[in-house]
Amino acid sequence: MFYGIGYIKGEIVNDDISIANEASRAAKDVNFLSVFHAQDLQGVVADGLLGLSPKVESWRSNGEEVHLLVNQLKADGVIAKAMFAMYLTEYTSQSRMQFGGFD
Residue 63 is part of which domain span? Predict the structure, then answer.
């Protein structure tokens, strides 16, 4: 998968992903990429990469449905709307992300 400045390789895996520190606020069986190779991303300051695609153009090769994070949060009743908003500043401690709506 290519990004603006780098390249990653990985395997599609499934797990529950929580947006809070409680199991009741988790999306079940979300697909994401477990990265085993990253190239040309040395200068990027990040803990990881989270895809927030609103849809998927194709299904996995084995015919299994792809469960995307925001859609699954909505389907599991964790958030009211399948949407997210970001407030980005030059200071990372002031930037925010909100799931299920905007403020």
Answer: 7-99
Length of the chain: 103
Q: In terms of DSSP H, where are the helices of the chain?
A: 69-75
Joined tokens for residue 42: 């040395």
- Residues near 74 by Cβ (< 8 Å), separated by ≥ 6? 80, 81, 82, 100
Q: What pTM does this model have? A: 0.67
**What's the chain's average pLDDT?**
77
pLDDT at 33 over 70: yes
CA neighbor of 102 nearest in space, from 89, 86, 90: 86
Q: What is the number of domains present in the chain?
A: 1
Give the list of residues 6+ apart from residue 32 with CB closer than 8 angstroms, or none. Answer: 12, 13, 14, 15, 17, 50, 51, 69
Predicted local confidence at residue 58, as pLDDT: 56
